[in-house]
């Protein structure tokens, strides 16, 4: 049995001039203290901001919410309250336009706030539609005929497949066969490509083969390829190199990655719109 987490504490903001009247203490680590508009995201996403002071010694507590569980998954902190109604919510900590954006939401509120987003499992990131841009130099390009996506051709600054929101590139994928991966590693070309990919908002390399296939290579020493691959991931950790087993799964992984990137970007834009006016 795991230990019961500390409660989620909500108090009045000691700064009477703040446009965010409450402060909330999230019981993770030493505690995350945020300023917030509401005491729970009942009808809309609630904009939050980092509190610029420690949790008060004598807070004016508005509500103490006992928790069953609390966990962090990437940018999201999921909480489950120990009650039958209004039990689940999450804090999303992301970045948009160079600044941190934080909002508090429930699944129902998040879905209602995105009228053009549906969540059947066949769609990437829950998006109703995904357009994938294919680089004009890509030979024998993936068609994504089994995914709910359309493709257009355009010259990309780097990579083979990309997703855009309006005219902003939000993610890019470099596609590799195992032979191409091995050759580009040993020639040094992949290092330059990874450096370029690291400059993109989100990027990945996807390989149409299994990692174990490296050790079956005959024209190059497998250990050398494995070592160079490890060095590349250490040097450019923001650009994962994913082995997707075969062409079909590599295409599916790319579809999901690009869809998730578009959804994350849209969530950041929505958080920016929730910023209080100066």
Automatic annotation (TrEMBL):
Residues 131-211 form the ERCC4 domain. Gene3D superfamilies: 3.40.50.10130. It holds the Pfam family ERCC4. It comes from the Bacteria. InterPro entries: ERCC4_domain, Restrct_endonuc-II-like. GO terms for biological process: DNA metabolic process. SUPFAM superfamilies: Restriction endonuclease-like (SSF52980). GO terms for molecular function: DNA binding; nuclease activity. This is ERCC4 domain-containing protein. The lineage of its organism: Bacteria, Bacillati, Actinomycetota, Actinomycetes, Micrococcales.
């Amino acid at each position: 049995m795991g230990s019961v987490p500390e409660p989620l504490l909500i108090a009045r903001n000691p700064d009477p001039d703040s446009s965010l009247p409450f402060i909330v203490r999230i019981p993770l680590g030493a505690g995350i203290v945020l300023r917030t508009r509401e005491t729970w995201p009942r009808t809309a996403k609630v904009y939050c901001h980092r509190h610029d002071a420690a949790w008060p010694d004598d807070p004016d507590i508005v509500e103490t919410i006992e928790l069953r569980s609390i966990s962090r998954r990437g940018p999201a902190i999921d909480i489950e309250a120990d009650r039958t109604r209004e039990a689940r919510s999450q804090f999303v900590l992301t970045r948009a336009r160079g600044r941190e954006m934080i909002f508090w939401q429930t699944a129902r509120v998040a879905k209602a706030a995105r009228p053009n987003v549906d969540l059947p499992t066949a769609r990437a990131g829950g998006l109703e539609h995904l357009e994938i841009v294919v680089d004009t130099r890509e030979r024998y390009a993936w068609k994504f005929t089994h995914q709910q996506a359309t493709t257009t051709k355009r010259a990309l600054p780097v990579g083979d497949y990309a997703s855009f929101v309006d005219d902003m590139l939000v993610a890019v994928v470099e596609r590799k066969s195992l032979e191409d991966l091995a050759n580009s590693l040993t020639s040094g070309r992949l290092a330059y490509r990874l450096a370029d990919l690291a400059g993109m908002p989100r990027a990945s390399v996807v390989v149409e083969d299994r990692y174990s296939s490296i050790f079956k290579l005959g024209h190059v020493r497998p250990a050398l390829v494995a070592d160079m691959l490890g060095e590349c991931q250490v040097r450019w950790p923001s650009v994962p190199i994913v082995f997707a087993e075969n062409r079909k799964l590599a295409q599916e992984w790319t579809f999901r990655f690009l869809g998730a990137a578009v959804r994350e970007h849209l969530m950041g834009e929505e958080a920016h719109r929730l910023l209080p006016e100066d």
